[in-house]
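pls design
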């Protein structure tokens, strides 16, 4: 799907509403409590890439993190801006393709990436983390045990592929499992 079609697809989905994407993912909460909070008790600078409605960006901003949130969907960013105003938190919002976003070098203490598995983005994320910075991600992964799921998981990572895409990071948590109708990888790493 080209960029314009992808943008239109996500704008429509967010316009119709995706209530399941308004609460932080349970793995995000687990990773924050086990890895982020001990190393960053005073918060820091975070990037929520492909943020959607900003469930993780808002949660972090409520805990005094300075958050940059990027998403392809203008509808999602507008809704996120409205939610941030209602919660009286500040976010740096950007409408843009996560694959084309240039996060810079050694800029972030924490990067959050959920369900955007573009292999070309991972080297940029490693570069964007400050020394000691953390990456939390949850992505679709192909399951060898189910041919239908594998065929349907276009763009999904292969099993055990993610650590190889992130050289220079120390793996803190890596679990691949079946969740409802798809495989997922839950991953946390430190630079």
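designed seq:
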């Amino acid at each position: 799907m080209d960029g314009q079609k992808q943008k239109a697809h996500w704008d429509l989905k967010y316009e119709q509403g995706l209530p399941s994407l308004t609460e932080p993912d349970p793995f995000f909460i687990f990773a924050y409590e086990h890895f982020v909070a001990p190393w960053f008790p005073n918060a820091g600078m975070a990037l929520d890439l492909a943020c959607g409605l900003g469930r993780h960006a808002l949660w972090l901003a409520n805990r005094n993190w300075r958050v940059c949130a990027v998403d392809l969907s203008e509808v999602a960013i507008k809704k996120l801006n409205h939610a941030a105003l209602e919660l009286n938190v500040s976010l740096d919002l950007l409408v843009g393709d996560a694959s084309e976003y240039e996060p810079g070098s050694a800029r972030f203490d924490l990067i959050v990436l959920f369900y955007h598995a573009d292999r070309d983005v991972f080297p940029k994320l490693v570069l964007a983390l400050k020394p000691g910075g953390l990456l939390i991600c949850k992505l679709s992964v192909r399951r060898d045990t189910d041919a239908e799921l594998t065929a349907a998981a276009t763009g999904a990572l292969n099993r055990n592929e993610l650590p190889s895409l992130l050289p220079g990071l120390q793996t803190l948590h890596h679990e691949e499992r079946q969740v409802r109708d798809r495989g997922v990888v839950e991953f946390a790493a430190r630079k």
